[in-house]
Amino acid sequence: MEVVTAEDYDGMSKEAAKFIYEAIEKNPNITLGLATGSTPQKMYQYLAEMLNENNIDLSNVHTVNLDEYVGLDDDNKQSYHYFMLKEFFNKVNIPLENTHIPDGKSEDLEAEVANFEKIITDLGGIDLQLLGVGRNGHIGFNEPGTPFNSRTQVVSLTDVTIKDNSRFFDKIEDVPTRALSMGLETIMDAKSILFLASGEAKRDAVNSLINGEVTEEIPVTILQKHDDLTVVLDKDVLGE
Ligand code: F6R
């Protein structure tokens, strides 16, 4: 595990954007695994700026997203489809047909998760997976107790996650209770992983990642077993 410490959220975002930018420069056929949420939001802004300023060709870059809520339309502002278009895909020259996000509106969710695994396999696997972490240690929407050998599946969100994510919704009842999420084994199959965390609220989860025992009760701890993991943190998450 390589740990990079940035001064603050802005510094973490710049470091992460630089990391992904360099990975794309090195491999123009890269398959990126992407995440949504507050953590990578500014990183996407910096990354889009760097890619556009340098006229980087993204026509052979492919992306697969970690997760999506069940039941939200793509144009719902809280859907991860909407987030990805707004924060990244609409700002850069990536062909939209190269971008893949699980379809939480599918009438056959089991077929959809199987199809998503097939998309990843057909792309030759994920070269670089971006991750944030939930306060309870979830990665993707793999909540505590998710088996380490899980593949992309339909999952139920815990009360902690529903409460945390309700900040984006008008009321807590509007937060979907289910999602589609890459499994922990799917994530661990990525050739390399870039993990980001910022702010005091993530301190316990990050402490478990760095110092804790590997346990299914804290999903993020599985990352200790990945042999190409880069962790970018800010000083708030580290504390004293
Ligand atoms: C998002 C995802 C989640 C988030 C996590 C942290 O695609 O898979 O695991 O990374 O919930 O969210 P933020 O960054 O909003 O604190």
Per DSSP, the total helix count is 8
Sheet with most strands: 7 strands, parallel
List all distinct small molecules, including ions and cofactors, that are bound in this structure. fructose -6-phosphate
Residue runs with pLDDT of under 50 for 5 or more positions:
none
**pLDDT averaged over residues:** 97
Helix content percent band: 25-40%
Broad structural category: alpha/beta
Order of helices and strands: EHEHEEHEHEEHEHEHEH
Please give the radius of gyration in angstroms. Answer: 17 Å
How many strands in all? Answer: 10
Shape: globular
Strand order of the largest sheet: 1-10-9-6-2-3-5
Question: Distance between termini?
Answer: 21 Å
Strand content: 15-25%
Secondary structure layout:
Elements: E1 2-6, H1 9-26, E2 31-34, H2 38-53, E3 62-65, E4 67-69, H3 80-87, E5 99-100, H4 109-122, E6 128-131, E7 153-156, H5 159-165, E8 178-181, H6 184-188, E9 192-197, H7 203-211, E10 229-234, H8 235-238
Parallel strand pairs: 1-10, 2-3, 2-6, 3-5, 6-9, 9-10
Antiparallel strand pairs: 4-8, 7-8
Helix pairs in contact: 1-2
Bound molecules: fructose -6-phosphate.
Fructose -6-phosphate (F6R) binds at residues 35-39, 66-67, 132-134, 138-141.
